[in-house]
Amino acid sequence: MKDMLNKIILGDCLEVMKQIPDESIDLIFADPPYNLQLTNDLWRPNETKVNGVNEEWDKFKSFEDYDDFTFKWLKECHRILKKNGTIWVIGTYHNIFRIGKIMQDLGYWILNDIIWIKTNPMPNFKGTRFNNAHETLIWASKNKDSKYTFNYKTMKTYNDDLQMRSDWYIPICQGDERIKINGQKAHPTQKPEALLYRIITASSKPGDIVLDPFAGTGTTLAVAKKLNRRFIGIEKERFYVNVCKKRLNKIKPYNAELLKYPLEIKQKRIPFGSLIENNYIKAGEYLYSQDEKHKALVLANGTLMYNGEAGSIHKISAKILGKPAFNGWDFWYVKRGNKLISINDLRKRVGDLL
User: Fold this and answer.
1) Which of 27, 273, 305, 324 is the most exposed, having the fewest neighbouring CB atoms within 10 Å of its CB?
2) Which regions of 154-208 does DSSP assign to beta strands (E)?
């Protein structure tokens, strides 16, 4: 598989994926043919033709034929996905419900359906239906027991300290980002980099391997490279492969220092007694509230004595504040000279030693 990394490979995904070892991929993003079932050209009111999806790769003889194709590529994805890996599949009302059913049949465990709301959708020129202004993404783990990557705290910060919701407002690919050849769109369904940026940031880590079995012009690969993920792209149309290669050559990855996930680092559990064991606090010292109105004596076994009552740093601080519970690490300080130092800062120092 080393020969595949950080490349786009010309070929049919069903054949190429057979060369990928079992459980070797961390994240898959799949933008398969939608099977739009278009039978006639679409025209704007000004009598200009809409450049829609009319390519042969999006045409199937029947729903059964499409389902068979979908089952085969999803089965291969399931085989090569790591035990704790996840897959994203995007589609429209034409195909996403069929895909979801097949995914569940294969054992995938659906985590979310994300609604990508297009802030600038193409109008419904015929006026016969609602304006189709969204696409649906299914996010799934390999099975219900997978310990998958989800950078929850990071995405909350990303979203101004609010939980990231399942409705994503992102414009369709436009402007300089839209790849054109001789004035025409290179690919009819090129996805915006913002969409892949959010997906890869949320559900993978630097160094992970990202696979796109329907790479097209390489949006997934371009963003993966930028975010220092290893990647494999598969595309059966030589024209798109050539476009993708040129695109990838222009991408410069972010510096590794900018790709850290500090909020996702789990803090070591450091008990208060560890501060005494490591001589950061001595038995017989006093702990103080920040306003110094309250102080408690530290016993050799880590117990605090306050006004004749014994307890932990948490129990005593909660009693002082009149609360049923409180995090004592945020309440207590020790004196060093004329300064008060938070015991939480001392805990971090001990954590660096352990």
Assistant:
1) 324
2) 167-169, 180-181, 184-185
